[in-house]
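Structure (tokenized):
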């Protein structure tokens, strides 16, 4: 995800939920770090919400982050780059390969929209071992497989303190999540994101078992 107007915490939470649900170890790459004076704050914000998550600052201009990515691949892993169009996936892969293999095009700075350069998935073996997969830019990501609780572990733990086991976090008395928001301990936007993704996840599970349409219903702050 690039550190310009494409940066979106809510979209990042969706990516992470899918990665965890598929048993994939996610690593967050924040690209265009050379253009953002708030890059360290963005990195710390993500890490504080998700302790243990690896977050790297990357710059295709300065090469920042490239050695750290190589160390993660460690000559034996296969990694895939996932994100919106134009955030720098293909450019990073060119850097890992040490040559210009993939066509690249940056985000349009007037609206932060990506230009599609990758149109299909392709795997590239690396000289020192391991491999990388380039993928087309993602416009929409459905929760076909996901683990939302892993992304919102703090909220999932806090739910255990609700008065009722079946609390919907709406108007019930003794809702620990709503109280945490009122006390300033839980960001309302993060709460809304959790409720939305959790509702999508539960609807997907019901659809698979009942083979019927399930409406998306959830409470918001």
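Design, position by position:
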């Amino acid at each position: 995800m690039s550190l310009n107007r494409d940066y979106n915490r809510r979209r990042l939470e969706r990516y992470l939920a899918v990665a965890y649900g598929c048993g994939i170890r996610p690593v967050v790459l924040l690209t265009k770090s050379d253009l953002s004076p708030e890059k360290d704050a963005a990195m710390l914000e993500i890490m504080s919400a998700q302790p243990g998550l690896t977050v790297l600052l990357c710059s295709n201009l300065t090469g920042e982050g490239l050695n750290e990515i190589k160390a993660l691949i460690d000559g034996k892993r296969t990694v895939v780059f996932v994100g919106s169009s134009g955030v720098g996936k293909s450019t990073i892969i060119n850097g890992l390969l040490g040559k210009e293999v993939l066509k690249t095009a940056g985000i349009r700075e007037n609206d932060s929209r990506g230009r599609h350069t990758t149109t299909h998935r392709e795997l590239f073996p690396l000289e020192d071992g391991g491999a990388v997969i380039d993928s087309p830019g993602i416009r929409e990501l459905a929760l076909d497989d996901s683990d939302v609780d892993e992304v919102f572990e703090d909220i999932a733990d806090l739910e255990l303190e609700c008065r009722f086991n079946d609390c919907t976090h709406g108007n019930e008395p003794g809702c620990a999540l709503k109280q945490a928001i009122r006390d300033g301990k839980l960001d309302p936007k993060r709460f809304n994101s959790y409720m939305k993704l959790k509702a999508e996840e539960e609807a997907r599970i019901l659809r698979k078992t009942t083979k019927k349409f399930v409406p998306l219903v959830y409470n918001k702050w």
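Reviewer-requested clarification: The chain has eight helices and five strands. The CA atoms of residues 41 and 135 lie 28 Å apart.
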